[in-house]
Amino acid sequence: LFRSVRDWSIKHVMSTLSPSGLKLIQAPASPFFQQNLSVAMATKRPATAMGDAAAKKLAAETASLAFPDGFLWGSATAAYQIEGAASEGGRTPCIWDTFCATPGKVKNGDSGAVACDHYHRFREDVKLMKELGLPAYRFSFSWSRLLPTGRGAPNPEAVKFYG
Fold it and tell me: Residues near 12 by Cβ (< 8 Å), separated by ≥ 6?
């Protein structure tokens, strides 16, 4: 459903399921975020900026969305995109650090070195998820944090962080 979203953070966007389909609700955000958010909203009443044919196609595609009983809506994150603390807690460089450090590979030279700073702000982030009533949270491990040398015993600081 997303065309592009930069600066993704649970603080800025949350999704809810309503009788009219999946809607994205944008909370107050920075001008940077507002400029870089481009979302295709799946509703029975598509945005008027869409052409009639595109609106009808979107409505037809989303009218049949069904999720099984027990399906949980929640939040998901990827370690590199959210954690930050690239050289803290025993973390060693990963392939994404190398890729992002290569000139011309990433717009504006952006990287996950700081990201959303989840490593330092995870308690606040979890509190926000709780306040939103999210019943599930899926996260990924930074393998270069968990196994800094690529093998051997897990890094105790990472075990504490992910535990």
Answer: 26, 27, 29, 30, 33
CA 95 → CA 15, 24, 109, distances in Å? 31, 32, 15
- Cα separation, 73 vs 26, in Å, equals 17
100: part of which helix (H) or strand (E)?
helix 95-101
Q: Is the pLDDT of residue 84 over 50?
A: yes
Distance, in Å, from the CA atom of 92 to the CA atom of 94, rounded to the nearest integer, reads: 6
The answer to whether residues 95 and 142 touch, using CB atoms and an 8 Å cutoff, is no
Taking the CB of residue 68, how many other CB atoms lie within 10 A of it? 5
User: CA-based Rg of the chain, rounded to a whole angstrom?
Assistant: 19
pTM of the predicted protein model: 0.59
Q: Which helix (DSSP H) or strand (DSSP E) does residue 56 occupy?
A: helix 52-63
